[in-house]
Every structure is written in C-alpha cells, then in structure tokens.
Amino acid sequence: MYSTFSLIRDVWGYLRPYKWRFWWGTFCRIAGDVAWLYQAYGFAELINFFARYRPGDSLVPVYTILGLMVLSSTIRFGGLYIAKTNCFAIGERLLLDAELRAVKHLFLLDISWHEKENAGNKFKRVDRGASSLDRILRMWIGNFIEIGINLVGVVFILATFDKIISGLVVFFLVSFYLLARFHIKRAVRASDVVNVKEENQSGLIFESINNIRTIKVMSMTPKIMKVLSDAAADLFESIKTRIFWFQSGSSARDFYTHLFRFGMFGFIVWGILNGR
C-alpha cells in the first residue's frame, strides 16, 4: 500500500532542486500565520482594557496593541505573498519536471510493456501524476500550514483565558480527526477505483480517435460505441460511490461541528449565568 511516508519521499525527490525556495516560502507562510494569531488576542485585550477603563487612565496599552496588530497584518500579508509567489512557481516547475521525467521513463521501458498499455492510459497517468505534484504543493502552502498553525494557536490562546474550554476544543479536534479519518479512508479508496477506470476510459477514447479511419473503413462504430458506453456506465457507478463517501463524510463532519458549537455556546452561557 502506498503510504504517506512514500508520498512525502517521492514528492521530496522532485522538490529537492528547489528546496531553499521551498523552505523560504514555508517559513514566510508560517511567520505570517503565527503573526495573524495576534489579531484575535489583540481584540480580546482591547475588550478587556475598555471593560476596566476609567476616564484618565493611560491609553498607552491601546496604542501598543493597535501597533502590534498593524505589524501582525503586515507580516501576515507580506509573508503570504512571498510564500505563494515562490511555492506556486515551484509547483508549476514540478509539473513540467514530472512530465519530462515520466516521458523519459517511458522511453526506457521495454517494448513488451508498451504493447500492453494503450497511449491514452499512458498520457492520463503522466498528466494526473504531474498535476498532482503541483496540487500537493498548493495545498501545503495554501491549506496545511494555515490549518496546523491555527489549530495549535487557537488552543494556546483559549488556554490563556479558560483551560476547560481549551480542553474541550482539544477533545473536539481529536474526535473530529477520527470521524474524518473513517470517511476519508473509504473516499480515497473509491477515488483510486475511479482513477483506474478513468484511465481505461480515456485510453479507449484516445485509441478510438487515433484509429478513426480504421474504425470507419471496417464499420466498427456500433461496436466501439458499445464498449465506450459500457465503460462510461461502469465508471459512473464508481463515481457515485466516490461522491457518496466524500459527501456523507462532509455532512457528518458539518453536523458534528455545529453540534459542538451549540454545546460550547450553551456551556459559555451557563458559565456566565453562574458568575464564571
């Protein structure tokens, strides 16, 4: 089975020539996301300050907080620009490198393997593999880092105000991960089946178009269309299974999230009513 470690190892093999630009972009994204956490903390401190404010009190803390908020915004958007500019360019370069490396590998394969695979299947695999590298890097710089920083940062910020709420959030994150993992494993398995069948469908269409003269001369159009229609119907059934697992998982996670949100709201209201 292709593991996450294998994926990271293979991606790094393509990424190694551009590692310094990658790490620089990653650092800028992390710095921007960490700095952005101060916004929530700063607003909370401003609310606390004005809740205790009395006429004549020094406003220096307010100016300090506002200055730090401006600085955090500058770091955030500057870091985001540098990170995406560098890593998106690397992603496009990886796509091109992967296509060239895949074609070179095809040239080195024995002719017996090529006779077993049609040109459409080969092209689909090359295209999907190359575009996946670009997609993974975009997800890393656009989603993974931000989610990781926010999860840790939010729990830390909450812990400074209420450790019970912070603990409940940690419980929610762990249980949410287990719920998501249950559905995602099945959704990924269904996606693998769809990918294989899409390769077969694309290969049949490519070969049909490539040999259209022969098909017309030999009056094979009805037979070829029957094969294509059966393959499309089989593919669609697998697509429906993939949609089911992705959407059922999404609905279950949304329901659980809103349930937790209402529970937290009730807990906070209860705490306020009891003077906490």
| Strand coverage percent | under 5%
Helix content: over 70%
Give the class from helix and strand content and strand pairing. mainly alpha
The overall pLDDT, averaged over residues, is 83
The number of E-state strands comes to 0
Q: How many structurally independent domains?
A: 2
* Coarse morphology: elongated
Largest sheet: none
Low-confidence stretches: none
Radius of gyration: 27 Å
Please work out how many helical segments DSSP would assign: 8
Salient structural properties:
mainly alpha
How would you portray this structure in words?
The chain has 8 helices and no strands. With 276 residues, the chain is mainly alpha-helical. The protein has 2 domains: 161 residues; 115 residues. Helix 3 packs antiparallel against helix 5.
Helices and strands in order, then pairings?
Layout: H1 4-15, H2 19-52, H3 60-108, H4 111-116, H5 119-161, H6 163-210, H7 212-217, H8 221-273
Helix pairs in contact: 2-3, 2-5, 3-5, 5-6, 6-8
Short note summarizing the structure:
With 276 residues, the chain is mainly alpha-helical. The chain is built from eight helices and no strands.
